[in-house]
Amino acid sequence: MKTISIINYKGGVGKTTLVLNIAAELAFTHNKRVLLIDLDPQTSLTFSCISVDIWNYNLESRKTIKNWYDAFISGDSDTSLSHSIYIPSHLNYNGRGYVGLIASHLGLINVDLELAAKLSAASPPQMAQNFLKLYSRLQKGLDEENVKNEYDIALIDCPPNFNIVTKTALAASSGYFVPAKPDYLSTLGIEELNRQVSKLKEDYNYYQSQFGNGKYLAINPKMLGVIFTMVKYYAKVPIQDQQEHIAAIKRQKVHVLTQMIRENNRFFSRPTYNKQPLVTQNGSEPGFLEIRTELESLTSEVNQIMDRV
After folding, report:
1. Which CATH number fits domain 2-307: 3.40.50.300, 3.20.20.70, 2.40.240.10, 3.30.70.270?
2. Which H or E run includes 102?
3. What is the pTM of this model?
């Protein structure tokens, strides 16, 4: 099972809509079994997949990612991640693939403080052990037989920060994509994000080699590329101002995916729970086919990149 994180320090770049449509297209067209993990306390991905009522009655008290981290905080490290998976019926494409969901929780925002307490220790070796145990938490959960054997791909929707929960996602991932608008604020943090990931990799692998005692694997989350969203086109090319921001990212020697997604709030703002994501819908409205075709092309490109990591 490939595990991929989707992250940007800047919100409002279409990250969650992108994650959901890529997952649905991988399942519907590419016959993949995709596990979505919502690590963002804003719960946008969760409520794009399911209704509030389903979350309240079926998931809130025992089947969210917060509940799973809470079990770790309370000392129950054996709680299976598979118990938190919910498969929305409308994302189960009979005869093709399907999409499972590990839902988020508004209370996830407070989990970081409690996880941080797990890092304290009286000696450097014990601190290293605590570090490895904490940051490998999601990696080990995804490596359970009844998770990795049921899914081909896990896509993690990360919050717009680099806190402990986010670090557990990157430590579990083969690589990460960064969705971004081609503007100053959305591209500003990409270089810093890459530095933070490199620092996490350096620290983790040092502790793993010195104090891991063969119980932990080294990590190597790779920057897989920037996905530009909300692109404004003029004469079939991005407008001049956006071209300059795209070029600036390429000068950082960061891979930029060929397929970009145009700005179209009419489709991207639609609620999707209990209905098919845009890539699996049919429509004749102006602009609909362009957006769907771009999302299909982007998913094929993402799939090819994931196959190489």
Report:
1. 3.40.50.300
2. strand 98-102
3. 0.94
